[in-house]
Amino acid sequence: MAKVVIHSIADGPNEVLVDGRPVAYLCRCGGSSRKPYCDGTHKRAGFKAPEAYVNVLE
C-alpha cells in the first residue's frame, strides 16, 4: 500500500506526498485562483502558518 503524507509547508501550501514524492500542492491561504491547488498567492498575501506533517495512509 502507498504511504500518503500531508506536509503543511511553513507559510505555504499543503504538499501531498505519495511514497515520498510530491503529487500536489493544495492551497491553505484561501486566496488561490486555482483552488484547490496552490498558485503562489500565499507569498503576495503574507500568509503565515506553522509547518506540520500528517500521515494519512501507511
UniProtKB/TrEMBL annotation:
A single MF term (Gene Ontology): metal ion binding
Tagged with keyword Ribosomal protein: no
Family annotation (Gene3D superfamilies): CDGSH iron-sulfur domain, mitoNEET-type
Keywords, comma-separated and alphabetical: 2Fe-2S, Iron, Iron-sulfur, Metal-binding
One Gene Ontology cellular component: cytoplasm
SMART domains per UniProt: ZnF_CDGSH (SM00704)
Protein name from the UniProt record: Iron-binding zinc finger CDGSH type domain-containing protein
Record organism: Thermoproteus uzoniensis (strain 768-20)
Lineage: Archaea, Thermoproteota, Thermoprotei, Thermoproteales, Thermoproteaceae
